[in-house]
Each structure stands twice: as structure tokens, then as C-alpha cells.
What does this fold into?
Amino acid sequence: MAEAVEAHYGACEGLVITRYGYARPCKGIEIVEAAHPVPDARGEAATRRLLDLVSGLSPDDLVLALISGGGSALLCAPSKGVSLIEKMAVNQALLTSGAPIGDMNIVRKHLSRIKGGQLAVACHPARVLTLLISDVPGDDPGQIASGPTVGEMSTLAAALVLDGQSGIHVLACDTDGVDGAADVAGAYAGPATLEMARQRGADPELALAENDAHSFFGAIDGQAITGPTLTNVNDFRAVLVLP
It folds into this structure.
């Protein structure tokens, strides 16, 4: 993919990580070989360099992300508190577990500093264009190489991630709530959510760990209760970002 980009655009600045024996001759793009399907120290070091390369970009910069199957192992940046040895052991266990690729990638994303859209975050405020070659059923961009430029959707922790960020409001609901165990259709989070929780003694991290959003948002008056809408058809997410 890097070779084709250079053939089209000419010499480019960049770094590509591929598996041992797969390097291609490029002019400006550096090619690093690393281990696949179980990551190694060479892949971890190259991933750190890649993250350094995209730091400090401007809105005028364009990052071209070339992603194909195999990137889950090659892009190796363990999250805080996780060692490379532990990451390798988990990856090996996943490969022998028989779990579907989607389930494997959820685990990989939560143990990484680059998967699940975190590469795109590191590139901000530059523009990111992702070109993908799929190796997963259904061609879900969030599953190919564990989605380095695609947000992770397996877990809603928006209030914690936003951490009081002004001007951003999030709503997660279904149409009326009657499918659940109560009449709550969903919940709302905004800039004041965590401060309200602190004032009322509600622990968002504990609630998240115990899958108990119901009690948490009930304690801070953050539940959405619509009553009968006569259209119990869908779940939806809405995000409002004010200037």
C-alpha cells in the first residue's frame, strides 16, 4: 500500500509497520518489519515512533492511514499498566481461544493506546484519511486491525471521557424504555454530570464496573423517561457539540 501511494503521489514522509519479510522498497516512507500474529518489542518501538510522528500536527496537515488485516498485532502500544509481555500473552490466548474476531478485537482495543480510534485522536487537529483492506466478515472499519482510526463502540463511558468538557452533551436512549426492567429510556450526560455525581456521592467508575448506569444516572437526575411513545423501534445515540 505504501509503495502504491508513493507511485501515485511521489515521495511522502511516513512510517509503515509490516510483518517480517513483507517490506517493499519505498523512497520517503520508512518501512519497519515486526512480528505477526503475536506482537514483539520491535513492533512496540515502531508504534511509539509512529505516535511521535503524528504528534504536534496542524489543521493543514493530512494523515493518510494505510490499514489492512494484521495491524492488530503490528500496531502494538500497550495501555498504561500493561507490559509488552502481558500483551503478548493475552494476544496468544486470544488466538487460541476460538473467539470471533470482533470479540478478540474488543479485548485488544481496551489494552491499547492506539487501537479503537486512538491513532486518530493522536493526529488531531490534522485531517485523517483512512484507506482499508478488509480481512474481517462484514468489512466493519472498526474491526480491521482493531480500528486505529475508528472510535470504539463496545463500551457508552462518555461522561468519564468528556470529563466536564464544556459544550458537549450526549444522549443514549431507546424510543420509550419499555424493553428494559424499568421505564427508563436512557440517560443524558453533559458538562455538569461528573460534578453533580461528586456532590451527590455517586461513583461513575464503580457504576461502570458494575454495569449499573441505571442507579448512577438516577442519583444525579440524568435519566431520560419519555413515557409511552407508541414507537418502540430503535436505540439511538445523539451528540450535541455547541460552539
